[in-house]
Write a structure and sequence with these properties.
Chain lengths: 517, 146
């Protein structure tokens, strides 16, 4: 036993070696202890019965469980263990030491164990420090992750709240890209999922005419940080119905996002707008009725009165002639003729009045075959057409039927063609061109002639007036354009008149397909 | 021959029957030779201009209809305005003669300083007689045929 102490006494000072046998009956037999001063200056080898005695009470309480687990495992498996433990050194300070313990099963069933305790293992300590650092970092990471989850949770919550608000709401970046849209917004566009929008920008959904306005407002919102309102935006929803919105936009800084966002809430004003439009229709209707009444009073005061005045005048002079007992003279004959003419005029004014007033009644819409209508009208002018050289051109290749009130359409075309015939040039061929074109929303019918034309600038105020005439060389009552205008108004159509003196006149009118009553 | 003492009467009206009545009324008591009637407003304007520039004309009495095609009575007045302004010393009397009973026409006539009066059609004998005596422009009583 003594010799073995001496043999290993040449070992480096920082390694403690201890070898012992554990007998089957559990009795320890210490064989070798080298450099025991590593742990204690007062070492009495007789009092040491085992390695456990040597280090008992010197291991850091936190490391005891680790050591005993490794020891038990090593006993069962017969494999060595290698641990870093905090152990009290001779200065009575905890110091990291490396413990290597190798078991060896002897033939008689006893276990021979060699333990090496290596002091001051700085490399290991460094490793541990590193591990500690990593542990701390991962702990912080975990905390961060938890915080993130919290944020996401809260984001999810407020989005749930936004989903519950029955108004379209969206979040977008400064460049217009959608970050979030709520359920109502999806519904409005007929989509079920927010993901349908995340690739899009608000400019993909907004009519072009609003783009620059929106860009400016967004800029203002981002710069000032104050909410901005914009009114009467026009959107078509997924059913293509036009709806109107006022939009309030505020600056929105989402947690954990650097870039400022714009939160927009859309407040629908469609009903209000529709009510306004409806009111406007009523107002227009009232104005039109008022204008009709004015026309009526105009006709009464000018045209009816004109004929009546003539009849009164003639009657007065006939009485005077009679009183002076003059024979029937040339003047008398003209007076009597005048009486007849005035009465006839009076009658025709009454008839025209009836025509104008009758046109206010509701008439049914039907599909009017445009070519047939055109041929009918041309036939009505056949006597007139014999008088001069006419050339008619037509193009109805694009349109077969026009949905309209037939008698109005007939009257409008009749009056236009009649005007073209009446106001033709005195020389040359009179060319009258009638065409019809259509697209998805409307039908446009054009009547073009090479007639004497009209100075539109000079006559613009009276062009469509009742009993207004602009040429005295051609007979007419000045009713045609008035009828065209009032009938187009009832049909909800629009018109365009181009005319140049000496070149010709082009009248186009457009009837819209959606106004089918 | 028209003497310097005589006034020209010019009527501008597109209504032939009304013109017949006006003519009958005026010529009942006035020299037919001095009566001139124009159905086309432009022809009437030219006649007026000529009459104003004519040194022999002592005075002009214009009966002007309002409601006419091509050019209404007010537009005729606009056209005559420069001549009227430059010849203030002439005896020019302008009367609107219209079938209109529209009050706005009457107001418009009253507001125009070149318009001396407004007659509702038909022009009656008494209207014209009053006019002659009131304005006292007819110096030669022999011209009266009635």
């Amino acid at each position: 036993m003594t010799t073995s102490f001496e043999i290993i006494s040449n070992l480096p000072q920082n390694v403690l070696i201890c070898q012992y046998i554990i007998h089957k009956n559990g009795v320890f037999n210490l064989l070798t202890v080298a450099n025991p001063q590593l742990l204690s200056n007062e070492f009495d080898k007789n009092s040491i019965k085992s390695f456990a005695d040597l280090i008992s009470g010197k291991i850091h309480p936190d490391d005891i469980a680790k050591l005993s687990a490794a020891y038990n495992e090593s006993n069962v498996t017969g494999k060595p263990f290698d641990l870093n433990l905090r152990i009290l050194n001779k200065e009575n300070n905890y110091e990291w030491m490396r413990l290597i313990s190798r078991p060896q099963l002897l033939k008689n069933g006893d276990i021979f164990r060699s333990c090496f305790l290596i002091e001051n293992n700085e490399a290991e300590a460094y490793k541990l420090k590193e591990k500690l650092l990593i542990d701390t970092l991962s702990e912080q990471n975990e905390k961060l992750e938890k915080a993130n989850i919290k944020i996401l949770k809260s984001r999810e919550n407020y989005r749930k709240i936004m989903d519950a608000i029955p108004k379209p709401i969206f979040l977008k970046c400064a460049n217009g890209q959608f970050v979030y849209v709520n359920t109502e917004f999806c519904k409005f566009h007929g989509k079920s999922d927010i993901n349908d929008f995340l690739e899009l920008s608000c400019y993909d959904l907004l009519p072009k005419k609003f783009h620059s306005q929106v860009r400016q407002q967004d800029q203002k919102t981002l710069e000032s940080g104050n909410p901005t309102w914009s009114y009467n935006f026009e959107f078509s929803d997924h059913t293509n119905k036009i709806r109107y919105f006022d939009i309030v936009k505020s600056l929105y800084q989402e947690a954990n996002e650097d870039q400022p966002l714009i939160l927009a809430v859309m407040i629908e004003t469609t009903q209000k707008r529709e009510a306004e439009i409806e009111r406007q229709v009523y107002i227009d209707d009232l104005l039109r009725q008022n204008r009709d009444l004015e026309q009526f009073s105009y006709i009464v005061s000018h045209n009816l009165r004109g004929s009546v005045a003539n009849i009164i005048g003639i009657a007065r002079y006939l009485q005077i002639q009679d009183a002076f007992n003059q024979p029937e003279s040339h003047t008398m004959r003209r007076m009597i003729d005048g009486l007849g003419i005035s009465a006839t005029k009076l009658d025709s004014v009454i008839k025209d009045l009836d025509l104008v007033l009758r046109s206010q009644k509701d008439l049914p819409y039907e599909d009017v075959a445009i070519n047939t209508l055109y041929l009918d009208i041309k036939f009505e002018f056949q006597e007139l057409l014999k008088m001069d050289e006419f050339q008619f051109k037509k193009d109805f290749s694009d349109v077969v039927y026009v949905r309209s009130i037939k008698s109005y359409l007939h009257s409008i075309l009749h009056n236009l063609i009649s005007n073209s015939i009446k106001f033709r040039k005195q020389t040359g061929v009179c060319v009258i061109e009638v065409t019809a074109k259509q697209d998805d929303t409307c039908v446009t019918i054009t009547v073009k002639d090479n007639g004497i034309g009209l100075d539109l600038e000079k006559n613009k105020d009276e062009l469509f007036g009742f009993y207004k005439r602009f040429h005295s060389h051609v007979p007419g009552k000045g009713l045609g354009m008035f009828m065209i205008k009032s009938q187009l108004e009832i049909l909800g159509g629009t018109y365009r008149l181009d005319s140049n003196v000496g070149i010709g006149t082009t009248f186009s009118f457009t009837l819209y397909k959606n106004t089918t009553n | 021959m028209i003497s310097r003492d005589e006034y020209k009467i010019i009527v501008i009206d597109d209504d032939q029957i009304s013109n017949l009545i006006t003519e009958t009324c005026i010529t009942q008591m006035y020299n037919r030779k001095l009566f001139h009637c124009y159905e086309h407003p432009l022809a009437g304007v030219k006649a007026m201009e000529q009459a104003i520039l004519d040194e022999d004309t002592r005075g002009i009495m214009l009966f002007l209809d309002i409601n006419m095609p091509e050019m209404n009575g007010w537009q005729v007045l606009e056209r005559l305005m420069p001549f009227l302004k430059n010849n203030m010393d002439h005896h020019i009397r302008i009367y609107m003669l219209s079938s209109s009973i529209d009050i706005t026409d009457k107001i418009k006539a009253a507001q125009n300083k070149y318009v001396s009066g407004y007659f509702e059609k038909p022009l009656g004998l008494d209207d014209f007689k009053d006019l002659i005596f009131k304005t006292n422009f007819l110096m030669n009583k022999d011209m009266l045929q009635l």
